[in-house]
Design brief:
There is one protein chain. The chain is α/β, with parallel strands linked by helices and 134 residues long. The protein is 17% helix and 43% strand. The protein has 2 helices and 8 strands, in the order βαββββαβββ. It has a 4-stranded mixed β-sheet, with helices on one face. Strands 5-8-7-6 form a 4-stranded mixed β-sheet, with helices on one face. A hairpin with a 5-residue loop joins strand 7 and strand 8.
């Protein structure tokens, strides 16, 4: 028997592929591993994502494009936490993920990290970026 655990991201409309392509572009060890799309006459918008999977530094994620409107979206209470020992990588991720998004905690020094930020990206996904202490 085999069990896997994955973070699952549900986007409304046709944003799943755009988001995962963006995320994969930010990490050296990242790839889209599968993608299934709705075809003509199926319940979702043609070409939108039925289900897709991607990896970021070995961590598996799944995503979909929901064709239904929901009374909820992403919340900062659940976030993707990135530890890095590269200040340049942290700065790059903060800049790129922050474009069109919202800063929840500004980039700076905190008691728990020499450099940290918490933000929601343009898709509403929450990220915490922390520089690993030397």
């Amino acid at each position: 028997m085999s069990t896997t655990v994955s973070t699952f991201l549900m986007f409304e409309g046709k944003k799943a592929e755009e988001a995962m392509t963006f995320y994969v572009s930010l990490f050296k060890d990242a790839s889209i591993t599968s993608i299934q799309r709705y075809g003509p006459g199926q319940p979702g918008a043609e070409g939108s994502v039925v289900q897709a999977a991607f990896t970021l530094n070995g961590q598996r994620f799944m995503c979909i494009d929901s064709s239904m409107k929901h009374g909820f979206t992403f919340t900062p209470a659940t976030s993707i936490f990135i530890h890095t020992d590269s200040e340049a990588e942290l700065d790059m991720l903060a800049a790129k993920l922050g474009e069109g998004g919202q800063v929840l905690m500004p980039l700076g020094e905190y008691p728990f990290s020499p450099k940290f930020t918490w933000l929601a990206d343009r898709f509403g996904v929450s990220w915490q970026l922390s520089l690993t202490k030397a």
